[in-house]
């Protein structure tokens, strides 16, 4: 679900996109040599415009939330992109580049289509292996009042947001107020935080220090949930629908807009 490079980590879907971009640029280099025409700049323009349009489309959809925290607009790590808007933007840019130099239409098309196929294939494999098959894990956790609970039994029949966090993780700490707001905004969605590795006293001290009022805080002393889902980057957030099926994931710190988008997805599945 995530990949790590030393202290850096990214979600698998983000990693797949990066690999697809690498494939596109590699194919651009290869076909440039074959057709003896430079297309690297054109490919870069197509990719850049696609990413920009995808980001702008997402920001427009959740503009009210970004208006409250405008610095989040440039925080592309939050994963706020509209895929199909980006595809349309890329196609229009490709058409523009070809109209300026018709000699590049074939190599540019080959490079861009190769990248699209690579992304579709890798994403399809990932979704086949994990998407639609991963349900709420059967992981034993502890409540703050020392009760043993099982994650897949505790919140049956309602959408659930599961946030993996730790007290030593600054992005995790920054997310807590957003999760608290979400708890009040969506009372029919279980907002569940599962602490990874801290002691009960550490969590209680943290809650008191931060003055938090999250009702579903669980303890996973042995990091069973991280092992179960294959993500060791914190924070990681999982979004399950009312049937317990995993609908969306987010690795790293989310923005208010990204959190709302994912909660809307699991709520609409009810």
Describe the structure.
By secondary structure, this protein is of the alpha+beta class. The chain has two domains: 121 residues, no CATH class; 129 residues, Glutaredoxin (3-Layer(aba) Sandwich), CATH 3.40.30. A seven-stranded mixed beta sheet has the order 4-3-7-6-5-8-9. The protein has a two-stranded antiparallel sheet with strand order 1-2. The two termini are 25 Å apart.
List the helices and strands and how they pair.
Blueprint: E1 2-5, E2 8-11, H1 12-35, H2 40-61, H3 63-68, H4 83-100, H5 105-129, E3 140-143, E4 148-150, H6 151-154, E5 160-165, H7 170-185, E6 190-196, H8 200-210, E7 216-220, H9 224-229, E8 236-240, E9 246-251, H10 256-268
Parallel strand pairs: 5-6, 6-7
Antiparallel strand pairs: 1-2, 3-4, 3-7, 5-8, 8-9
Helix pairs in contact: 1-2, 1-5, 2-4
Index terms:
alpha+beta; single chain; about 270 residues; Lgt; transmembrane; 9 strands; phosphatidylglycerol-prolipoprotein diacylglyceryl transferase activity; two-stranded antiparallel sheet; Glutaredoxin; Thioredoxin_CS; cytochrome c-type biogenesis
Assembly state (oligomeric): single chain
Spell out the helices and strands N to C.
EEHHHHHEEHEHEHEHEEH
Radius of gyration: 21 Å
Kindly estimate the percentage of residues that lie in beta strands according to DSSP.
15-25%
How does CATH name the architecture of the largest domain?
3-Layer(aba) Sandwich
| Fraction of residues in H or I helices | 40-55%
CATH level-1 class of the largest domain: Alpha Beta
Report the span from N to C terminus.
25 Å
Q: How many structural domains are formed by the residues?
A: 2
For the biggest β-sheet, the strand order reads 4-3-7-6-5-8-9
Q: Which overall shape is indicated by the principal axes computed on the Cα atoms?
A: elongated
And the CATH topology of the largest domain? Answer: Glutaredoxin
Q: Spans with pLDDT under 50 lasting ≥5 residues?
A: none
Domain Thioredoxin: 115-268
Subcellular location: Cell envelope
Pfam family, one: AhpC-TSA
Transmembrane segments: 12-31, 43-63, 83-99
């Amino acid at each position: 679900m995530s990949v790590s490079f030393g202290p850096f980590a990214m979600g698998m879907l983000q990693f797949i996109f990066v690999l697809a971009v690498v494939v596109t640029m590699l194919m651009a280099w290869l076909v440039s040599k074959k057709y003896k025409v430079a297309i690297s700049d054109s490919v870069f323009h197509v990719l850049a415009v696609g990413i920009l349009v995808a980001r702008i489309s997402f920001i427009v959809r959740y503009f009210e939330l970004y208006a409250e925290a405008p610095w989040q607009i440039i925080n592309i790590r939050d994963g706020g992109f509209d895929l199909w808007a980006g595809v349309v933007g890329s196609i229009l840019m490709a058409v523009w580049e070809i109209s300026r130099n018709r000699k590049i239409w074939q190599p540019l098309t080959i490079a861009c289509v190769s990248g699209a196929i690579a992304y579709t294939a890798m994403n399809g494999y990932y979704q086949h292996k994990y998407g639609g098959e991963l349900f709420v894990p059967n992981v034993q956790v502890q409540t703050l009042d020392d009760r043993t609970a099982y994650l897949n039994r505790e919140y049956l029949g309602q959408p659930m947001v599961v946030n993996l966090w730790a007290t030593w993780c600054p992005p995790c700490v920054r997310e807590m107020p957003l999760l608290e707001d979400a708890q009040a905004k969506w009372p029919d969605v279980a907002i569940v935080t599962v602490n990874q590795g801290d002691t009960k006293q550490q969590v209680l001290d943290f809650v008191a220090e931060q003055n938090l009022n999250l009702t579903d805080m669980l303890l996973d002393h042995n990091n069973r949930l991280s092992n179960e889902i294959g993500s060791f980057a914190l924070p990681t957030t999982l979004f399950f629908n009312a049937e317990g099926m995993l609908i969306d994931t987010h690795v790293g710190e989310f923005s208010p807009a990204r959190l709302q988008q994912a909660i809307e997805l699991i709520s609409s599945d009810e």
